[in-house]
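Section 4.2 – Deliverable D4.2 (structural model, holo form)

The reporting period included a commitment to supply a predicted holo structure for the target in complex with adenosine monophosphate. Inputs used:
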Amino acid sequence: MSDCIFCKIIAGEIPSKKLYEDDEMLVFHDIKPVAPVHFLAVPKKHINSLLELEEADAPLIGRLLHKAQEIAKQQGCEEKGGRFIINAKSDGGQTVNHLHVHFLGGRALGIRIC
Ligand code: AMP
Ligand code: ZN
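Output (structure tokens):
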């Protein structure tokens, strides 16, 4: 998608601090971290939102989540954990309309759900 910021990051048109890349996903640091560890895991395929996920893409999102937990552990969050978040559409606070998983860790996040 030509006007999508994450597609531009995937295409290398906008720089990012990459943690992992393969042919179907990219993991990079969030530009405005809200925790000591805050990265985004993004499929290279442009999918607007989790609410638009097709069944055929379910295995891709499974692999994305598996990689995200691997990177979270590499970032030092294995013992204390953290939070995986997928915001979906406007009421969910999604600001970038390219499906992505946030991981927040490195501090206690409490029970607040936003
Ligand atoms: P969401 O509100 O779930 O759509 O989250 C979008 C996230 O993308 C926010 O946490 C932003 O800080 C992050 N973000 C936006 N632009 C960039 C960028 N160029 N590089 C890294 N993260 C970004
Ligand atoms: Zn995109």
